[in-house]
Amino acid sequence: MKNPVPQAASLLLEKLMLLVHIRPLPAGSGGETPPPAPGYYDTSCFKRGDLLEVPRTLFIHFGIYLGENRVAHLMPDILPSITADHQQIQQVVTNKRLILGVLARTASVRVDTVEDFAYGGSILVNHMDRLFEDQVLGSEEVARRAEKLVGATAYSLLWNNCEHFVTYCRYGASVSFQTDKFCETLKMIIRDQRSVLASVLVGLASIVCLGVAPSTTLPTIFIPFFLWMAG
Known about the structure:
- By secondary structure, this protein is an alpha+beta fold.
- It has two domains: about 130 residues, endopeptidase domain like (from Nostoc punctiforme) (endopeptidase fold (from Nostoc punctiforme)); about 40 residues.
- About 40% of the residues lie in helices and about 15% in strands.
- The chain has nine helices and six strands, in the order H-E-E-E-H-H-E-H-E-H-E-H-H-H-H.
- Strands 5-1-2-3-4-6 form a six-stranded antiparallel β-sheet.
- Helix 8 packs across helix 9.
- The longest helix has 15 residues.
- The chain is globular, with a radius of gyration of 19 Å.
- It starts with a helix and ends with a helix.
- It is a single-pass membrane protein.
């Protein structure tokens, strides 16, 4: 049987980076990539309360359409925890703000244009409805839920990310299928005793990046670590 650890470890590292919505910069770029110009997307097919998805390479970013080219979405961001300057906070979030927000576990539910939200990616509309039969709330209620949550909030990859936000708003249940897949990968690495060092590193990363350790992580971190050091 093929050892799943290298593949799982690679997926884990990619998830840690991509799930925080870091925007790739073009080769040779010295700064942030500018978002598309207004009007880049045809918003005539969007309705207030729609759930918008922007698929990336290995993750999906989610938001709730509020009408008039506005999208509410949750993003890691360090700035709301250090300043009350709304004008400064409302500027497009840079990669540095994203990374520091993940490390500090702070975020904000912000309202941006469709262009700033999607950042050049393709947009799927209400694609998750098929997974929540008879649970879709009324469009106006969805939008109002999103609007009430606008502002600073805690961030957790496990408990409060952009997918948790939109599923709560549209379906009344805060869940994240991306997180579930991430945790399954994490458990697979941790339980594989053939890779003790990977278990140690993944366990420590889960504490630092996620703010919480899975139930199987803590005993698996330290006991194999000392055995590995002694061996």
